[in-house]
Amino acid sequence: MAGYVVLGAQWGDEGKGKAIDLLADRADAVVRSQGGNNAGHTVVVNGEKFILHLLPSGVLSDRAECYIGNGVVVDPKVLTHEIDTLRAKGGRTDHIFISDRAHVILPYHIEIDGILEEEKGENKIGTTKRGIGPCYMDKYARTGIRMCDLKDRAHFESKVKLALEEKHLRFQNHTFSLEKVMQEYDGYISEIKPRIIDTIPVLHKLMKEDKLVLLEGAQATMLDIDFGTYPYVTSSNPTVGSAITGSGINPFFIKKVMGVSKAYVTRVGEGSFPTELTCEIGKHIQDIGREFGSTTGRPRRCGWLDGVALKYAVELNGVTDLIITKLDVLSGLDEIKVCVAYELNGQTIDYVPALMEEFSSAKAIYETFPGWSEDISHIREFEKLPQNAQNYMLAVEKLCGTKISMISVGPDRHQNIIREELI
Fold this sequence. Notes:
Layout: E1 3-8, H1 16-24, E2 29-32, E3 41-45, E4 48-52, E5 65-68, E6 73-74, H2 76-88, E7 96-99, E8 103-104, H3 107-119, H4 132-140, H5 153-170, H6 178-192, E9 196-197, H7 199-208, E10 213-216, H8 240-245, E11 254-262, E12 265-267, H9 280-288, E13 301-303, E14 305-306, H10 307-317, E15 321-325, E16 335-344, E17 347-349, H11 356-361, E18 363-370, H12 387-400, E19 404-408, E20 416-418
Parallel strand pairs: 1-10, 1-11, 2-5, 2-10, 5-7, 6-8, 7-9, 11-15, 14-16, 15-19
Antiparallel strand pairs: 3-4, 12-13, 16-17, 16-18, 19-20
């Protein structure tokens, strides 16, 4: 056994939560490595839906210990609410731990997030206004507050006081105060303080004992702060490097990198989207796929699968296994398209431009495949899929240059076609 990474290969919402939940039954530990509660992983177990924002998706497993890694920014209010909700549903909560190096989202981060977005005017990026970006800003400005700072109340209060003095100089129209922060956070600290540990020696011990550690990414490759469609990206690195730096795991322990992609593409918020369907087909996919954000509730923009972006994600992350979700949503369409290249300034390109003005001008070049009408939600073997569905998946596999090991044909954890064992 070793480290296995699961990450998003599009713009998020690919179904990572379902994949991780399925694999967690064989894992000894599941580690969330980056992002904050701007992520939303939906897991359906026996028809009951669980929406997780901070807790690792493996939290529903009876086997795996769950760790929120040092690369995550944690809102204690959201975390305690998720733990309380899980407990109320009869779920186990004694296996949840938080890295003492993880940074803390405070009320002023959330308010600042809204202020900064409004200041951008027409150039807004569509932030979820959860305080994620401002918290990461403090982290890299070396003025952040970490989980280890919460262990002693007097120490925590002194850190908050110092931070607020700096915020007062920049933001005049604010509502946060030291008393308000401390009063609110006193309640959260009692719940999360016993869970704060140094996760690094724990994870290293598991690795040395040849245990299985599952590293869970949030958001996705095309939202990566370095490699995504900047500036319409998230504030962290949802690519494979962050699985290492956000957990403290030695990279030589990583055995597999699993990239999750829908059979089509969705995107929430602002930013270019070459394969977007603004026609009835896009609305059909949105309705059938129930494409509404699990964190924000916003409708997701839908489009054909972007093979250029998917191949980019595969190569960038060293993806060894692709997991394709929601293939069943495409049932009933007469034809299905895949973007195989872009046209830019009269030339054909097969890469994702760094300059967003160029990416916005890129036009998708498609290859078209005949669709299928059969209901495939009950199928569990690849060879029993309609031939046109098989052909579509094999073409995607060839385009991306890596194998499709699992195909999801429905929301429940058992609605999957396993072509090759992932673990």
